[in-house]
Amino acid sequence: MQSKVSIIIVNYNGMPHIDACISSALRQNYQNVEIIFVDNNSGDGSLDYARSKFPSLIFVPCSENTGYAGGINAGFAHATGDYIAPLNIDTEVDPDWLSALVAFLNANPGTGAVTPKILLFDQRDTINTKGLNIHVSGLGFCRSLNRKNDRSTAPERVSGISGCSYVIRREVFEWMGGAPEDCFMGNDDVIVSWLVNLMGYDLYCIPESIVYHKYTLKMNSAKFYALEKNRLVLLQATLKPVTLIACSPVFAIIELLITGYSIIKGAAYIKARFKAMSDALKDKDAVRRKRERYNRIRKITDFALLRRLRWNIQWDQLIKIV
Known about the structure:
By secondary structure, the chain is an alpha/beta fold. The chain has 13 helices and twelve strands. It has helices at residues 18-26, 46-53, 67-76, 97-107, 170-175, 188-198, 221-238, 241-246, 248-265, 267-282, 284-297, 302-308, 315-320, and strands at residues 5-11, 33-39, 58-61, 83-88, 91-93, 111-120, 123-129, 132-134, 140-142, 156-158, 167-169, 202-213. Strands 1, 2, 3, 4, 5, 6, 7, 10, 11 and 12 form a ten-stranded mixed beta sheet that branches. The protein has a two-stranded antiparallel ribbon with strand order 8-9.
């Protein structure tokens, strides 16, 4: 019998994207699927439209916008699948999207989550990402961004999955406590990837599985603050003090670069940068709670974790958001 997959589509005012996303999800060659449509209190009528046009879906309306990660968790509360498949609303998926991902997970029990090759929606010969490159400092970068589609189908081990689309084992998702809801502004995929690695599971990009994504690389001071605070809390909560000290030369360079970035961007970013640093260092109770939870799921040492991550910076992506 086929493993059951719960596709969780999180919507917030996504009317322009609904038809392409849901119609393509319903055209999957993989049969044992339930589609859960989570609406984060949209005001554009998209929930009512989806209900009328796609009545076979499971609908989960939320009373407030809880962000992408919060929406995933709201959908997970209704999910019955062996695998959980979060999917951005601004996507279109290939008919073999799910079957290729599930086949790899079924054949590789040491893999905790997989992600497809994601191509740009309006430039379908160009790569958006093939998973993420997760830097040891907690920064996440798209793999192969803006490169031409190379047509390779060989699975590629990666340090991170893309939050746009991934499939994760139910027990792994439960074990980590679901998606990190404090990542309201993004970066949830970096933290999910970090924790899957911490559990000792592998992550893979499966190029046979294809998603088309309406991708834009955007930043503002509020998002910058949230990303920075969550990144700094993650490092404190998962790496031992001796590891932080040992890696301090690398971290110091990264922190200087990020501070320089904030100076280039202006006063709002400078304020956000130093507030993120202050809040991450002051919130000792939150760090302690996360450390205790993460230690319960940890299966590998700090050294083994850092070996799974990347040490080089994706300068091209940093430059584009300056």
